[in-house]
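idk why but the lab printer keeps eating my pages so im just putting this in chat instead. protein + magnesium ion:
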Amino acid sequence: MKAAEPTLKKEALPMKPDTPVQYVKGVGPKTAEKFLRLGVETLADLLQLYPRRYIDYTRPFPVAQAPFDADAVVKAAVYSKKAAVRLPGGRTMVQVLAGDDSASLSLTWFNTHFMADKLAVGEEYYFEGRVRGTLTRREIANPTVRTAAQVARTPMVAVYPQTEGLGSGQIARCVASALEGADPLPEPLPPALLAKYKLPGKWEAVRAIHCPEAPEAAAAARRRLTFEELLTLQLGLILLRSRGAAQAGAPMRGVDLAPFWASLPFAPTAAQRRAAAEICADMAGAAPLNRLLQGDVGSGKTLVAAAGVYMAHQNGYQSALMAPTEILAAQHADTLEKLLGPFGVRVALLTGGMKAAAKRAALAAVAAGEADLVVGTHAVLSTGVEFARLGFAVVDEQHRFGVRQRGLLAGKAQSPHVLVMSATPIPRTLGLLLYGDLDISILDELPPGRKPVKTRAVRGEKRRAMYGFLNAQIEAGRQVYIVCPRVEEGEADGPDALNAVKTYYKEVAQALLPGRRVGLMHGKLKPREKAAVMEAFKAGELDALVSTTVIEVGVDVPNAAVMVIENAERYGLSALHQLRGRVGRGAQESWCFLVSDHGGESVRERLQFLCHTQDGFEIAKYDLEHRGPGDFFGDRQHGLPTLQLADLTADTRALEAAQKSARELLGQDPKLAAPGHQVLAAQVERLFRRTTFN
Ligand code: ADP
Ligand code: MG
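predcted complex ->
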């Protein structure tokens, strides 16, 4: 394929960083097109396409010590070669016997014998591949062969992510020829930073990350380039924010919150007062409010948001609040109506499932300024919504939305104040990154009188006894939630997708709670049906609610005292903690039962951990350490640029150093306009250009 591509003459002329990748020796237009799909346009882009890992030839295994069924490099001498044989079906096979003092090794190539042809009997080589067989008979099929001279030249072979029809080997060849002919890449980091963190220079690091001489050199290069990547990211996030800050926020005057606090049936916690004061101060300030309100489940975030709405309303502005589910939106509309109605705040609910006529009426009220607060789901974001005077926007359960949606909502107002709220505690390091562009207020205090939710892990065989307990609780006037999966394990997501929850509802819940009023809730119900079930539960007309995880976030029924979670092993700890947060909202004792028949040790350990911990931060940390960030965020887009090198959970220290450095740099040069910062500024532009950020 390479031969088919016209090779352009590029004699001794050194290539500049912005030389199109097509002119790199060995690339050509066709390959350049594939590179383009990876975001690689220029020589500099190519050199900054970093390897994912290496095949390390510096520490080959003796044959007997090579691990089975894993890729390994083995050093062995060739003992004998057999002639190629033709296999049935037209395939050919070549066998070579090799070995060292420790054991012998059989090497087999199918359909290619040029590797074997080049081997000289008696010589030592490096063979890379998957070792299979038994302790007495080891073999590798289709190993890669390298000579001692080759290994001396490239002791560690870079492995690149293979995509868009570009193999790792092909990328490696292109990178190698680029390294040969290129002018050194310019240094983006100021000399002071290099010195402070003892980082190698850019060009040295780029060369070393592609062809390191030893694992240590690769690690040093990676450290330097990871720092650069994180610094770029942090700079971009801070610059994004200051772009918003250049705009004045909706001009508001300070407002005394005392009448609002006095209207409540309870006293706000000190944390709630503090957070509300911070929000109001921001809104009365010159730069727009751009703040994250983080507080564990049940800490009373809604009330803080309400204080902000109060302030906006006193200033003649509309507010919008966005929630992740219809159930939650309806509940918020309800709560906020009660809290703010007395002050003349007119609340409109706007969800995707609303009847067309009702929706039209709500939209008209919003546009005419006849609604002061719009509460809704994503529908609020749809293009049809026009606000008369939006001044304050709240996004609840921020972890469920991307950075992008946050921006969209803000875009609805000319000069928005934006508050995002999250119950899912985000470990500090990730918080720094995700919310590096936000100020943070924390509710570190629960309303008084809350008792920890007694949490027990139980096996299915105890279900009957547990239901006995549920019956007693209901007898005492309490309500219970029972959460179970929508589908059975392995079942398709077809028309029977509701089997599990429906069957459970009939055959377990109703059967074991005879004479009790049991409700059923799941995502497939019509919005009106959902609302009716929720209403009935809230009003105490249902004793028990069998539900899927649609009630996971935010739902607030203080009389509910027991949460049962069936198949608890299916959920991450943070999700379980959220579910558990549905109870323990009143003053009475409350319980959470994690039902699981899963025997796995890690599952038991996980559930036990939850039984002994109520602290959302600890729980999130455990989840992150044991399940990784992918699970932590689910597959929801958090909207950050894709990072090549940095591991957000592991590179904690680098992340903190990068943020500190970014702040310092922008302190000296707020727009990165100084000549010495041009390379870095261009890099920031580039990282954020490739994302959905705007
Ligand atoms: P979350 O932070 O999880 O969103 P909510 O805003 O839903 O929490 O509040 C949880 C419950 O606590 C609600 O029933 C709310 O009325 C109640 N609450 C909030 N603040 C206080 C307070 N200061 N004193 C007593 N109860 C409060
Ligand atoms: Mg909430």
